[in-house]
Amino acid sequence: MKTLEDLRKIREKAQSEMKTRDQKARVKIVVGMGTSGIAMGAREVMKAILDEVAKRNLDDVLVTQTGEKGLSSMEPVVDVIEEGKPTVTYGNMNPEKARKVIAEHIVNGKVVNDYVVATQS
Amino acid sequence: MTLKRTDILLCCGSGCVSAGALKVKKKLLELFEQKDITSEINIIETGCMGPCDYGPVMMVYPEGVFYKTVGVDDLEELVEEHFLKGRPLKRLMLQEEERIFATKKDIPFYQKQVKVALEHCGYIDPESIEEYIAVGGYEALGKVLTEMDPQKTIETIKESGLRGRGGGGFPTATKWAFTRKASGSPKYVICNGDEGDPGAFMDRSILEGDPHRVLEGMMIAAYSIGANKGYFYIRAEYPLAIKRIKNAIEKACEYGLIGENIFGTDFSFDAEVRTGAGAFVCGEETALIASIHGERGQPNAKPPYPSDSGVWQKPTLVNNVETLANVRTIILKGADWFAKMGTEASKGTKVFALTGDVKNTGLVEVPMGITLRELIFDVGGGIVDGKKFKAVQLGGPSGGCLTADHLDTSIDYESLTEKGAMMGSGGIIVMDDANCMVNVAKFFLEFSLEESCGKCTPCRVGLKQMYSMLERITSGEGKPGDIEELESLGNSIKALSLCGLGQTAPNPVLSTIRYFRNEYISHIEDKSCNTKVCLDLMHFLIDKDKCIGCSLCSRKCPVSCIPGSREEKYEIIQEECVKCGTCMEVCPVNAISKLPGISEELRSEKTEPSDYRSLYT
Amino acid sequence: MYDEILKKYEPKKENLIYILHEIQDNHPEQYIPEDAVMEVSRYLSIPSNHIYGVMTFYTMFSTKPRGKYIIRLCESPPCFLRGSENLLRKLRELLNIKLGETTPDKKFTLELCACLGVCGNAPVMMINEDVYGDLNEEKVEAIIEKLGGQQ
Known about the structure:
The structure holds three protein chains of three kinds. By secondary structure, chain A is an alpha+beta fold. Chain A contains four helices and five strands, in the order αβααβββαβ. In chain A, strands 2-1-3-4-5 form a five-stranded mixed sheet, sandwiched between helices. In chain A, strand 3 and strand 4 form a beta hairpin. Chain B has five domains: about 110 residues, Glutaredoxin, CATH 3.40.30; about 210 residues, NADH-ubiquinone oxidoreductase 51kDa subunit (Rossmann fold, 3-Layer(aba) Sandwich), CATH 3.40.50; about 60 residues, Ubiquitin-like (UB roll) (Roll), CATH 3.10.20; about 90 residues, de novo design (two linked rop proteins); about 70 residues, Alpha-Beta Plaits (2-Layer Sandwich). Chains A and C meet through helix 2 of A and strand 4 of C.
């Protein structure tokens, strides 16, 4: 890119891509993959989520990764983001709990309150 | 189901039904009939939505509004205002805090935090430059390069009051100005990612979670001082951070954000990653520079400071990861915005790593000036297992500890130093009352001793002597005069050491002596560790009155030191006891206790403790 | 023999640490043998004693052969406060070796290390590049089992 104008164009494009991704994707699942999360098993959680999403053919669900939010004692952490709803942060996740969240929250729309550690818009 | 303009998701879980959800539905349908909007609105009965004590609840789409405690009497107004006029009814809406309360399990953890350096950590994909740009990335760099000159940039940082976040607290703008003024070329910027403080992982999180942010800060710094080359020095124990920064540099190159004529200006920049190989002392800037040169990471005397003579004897700016992570926000939101937070001399926010015996361990970013009490008890959630707070170590092995008397101290550079502690890089280790402070001090000293580079005598020899004394004290060989000797030696080492490691290593010992002198005294004079941590100064004892002679302890003892019989009962041979505690665990009648001090048996046998001075002659 | 690696770097002293890292990471016994030091010395035109000086200064380099899996248990205060001493004892039991030693089948080497920066999940250990947190004796046993069993 050569100018600030170029940067802005890229920004707009990136923002809209993230939005349409979200629109094409009804739900975005974000797994915390910092070293804290990985040390507590985030890789296995990620695998379980990808596996369950594929098994159920959920093609309106996007799965990505992020860094640490700082909730070390609650790692592994998984965010569920849906347009118009507060973001739900699940903590102390493991592959089993992750599969339950896919089934109950992602498919049936029912937040698994017991696993929630925070919600914010 | 036909497409309608509004969808109402009405919770019909048992909680809401018992609160009248079905009556609400009936009334709504009646009202829609009346107003002739039945064909426009869907009412969908759903399962339990969660916040049952606020029932009946409903969500209205497409606005995404969440209504709580919707009563039949509210419906006329609701239909009129929201469904007809399109104005959601505020008074029925679940307020932000309430919504969070409804399902949030950890409110105080977030409440007091203000995220600046950690703004995007945990929210963007650190391997995607597009996501970084989408949240305003590189806008600050663009602004600086096209609208501000180096001098103005430095002034902005000066107005913000930003101070080095690595522990020194040196005013960042001043360092930048020194390096800018220095003669010599080319100049360099180094990002110090050699975070070695035990209990600190702020820099790791930022490097892993928002690498572009640090890169952007580095480039702004480089522009301000007239450098075109930057080095990220990251410790080898952080492989993920190294990977993410390398990836960020690559992606930035692809986008032309690193290279020649950035943003069409004549500023060019290139960055590289350098790694350590396991040496805490390389966090010290001159040692770090030696390491970059491919040498042993031994510090050099200052002056000359790196700003005059650093990498390859050229002017070099060394800044901590968190310091650089603040730069972009200061440029975008303004120096005033940043300076409004914190105290008079300590502006902005600081990232702390809460570890130890506290409930919510993790990273938090709070404005400076918050008290220790708020940080440990509100944000941290207090002590685990319901134990009592005893002490908190700030600043890792270079810092000092503070006690319950200091909980209302404001966390800022000056207030902490006054009390004998220090801000340090942000590591906060909380300790409960099961910890022995003499043992803790010994532990921290051991760390510094092992990490000492060995170059200067006060540190190399002095710390070893202090450690030997602490070993004697914790094994029952303490002598009157030891405490004063530790203080004197500690102060000498502080005054005479070449670099920051030696200059601060005695701090944990000196501050524990200051605030927990009585523990040292009981170790030395009473030969007793009241927290029963120091193995040589505690013992296990069988109460013969309670003992039922079952022999379980004797059979489980790994060193077979509990002879006895059903009639004579059992007794521990103290000399052979290895203090494993198995006997106490297995005793069915709780006849065995863990007691402070040396056992009677050994006390009477013990000869006078050896004169430590004989070690020196 | 080490040409492949040396070729990648310019023959400058500042590349010493990276060359050493790469030689070590690529050696099946995870250390830097004497012949490697000699070749590096020739390539960079630095006396071998300087190279040994650097190797022995930094804790991650080893002059002695080590196992396939290098277990680094964090011994720093936050991990100590959460019971790392018990884990050390357990590891010694499971592997039947002392600190700094390698198991006879050359699978595991046991070392202590300074703070790994995952203190929020103490106690922590690192095996090669993988980090494991929130450990207790059972978890440690399970991890060792998975990697190749007790000794």
